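Progress report, Aim 2. The chain analyzed during this reporting quarter is listed below.
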Amino acid sequence: MTVDKLLFYLLLITGLTIATLYWQQDHLPFKLPTLTDLQSFAQHNQLAESQSVQSVTQQAQEQLQATGEKFQSAASSVQQVLGAAVQVNEDETKSAPEKALDYGKYLYCQQVVNEFEKHKSLTASPAP
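Predicted structure tokens for the chain:
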């Protein structure tokens, strides 16, 4: 049997199966999905994903804030213990914990944007 005949029979069987399912869809024990079913499923998943991203963003922000506060208290404790041995640059407008918190937020936002752009490029429909 050649590849051409095998491919022909495979396409014939697939076509007959699809035609049978289409004509007998009212008698099947399950409902075949329609385009509107698939679209509503996609919208529901997109909404759930959006809510989970917001939840994760909120949790990450709270954790970064708590970590920044702990770092700030640890830094002040170390400064008190070491006293004059540690010289802190007083000229800067932001403290080290604030800079660390801002950098953590920046990295997290950058990751969220990259994932969003990746997801958007995968789901983008081609132009007609």
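The helical segments are 3-23, 35-82, 96-123. The mean pLDDT is 78. These observations will guide the mutagenesis work planned for the next reporting period.
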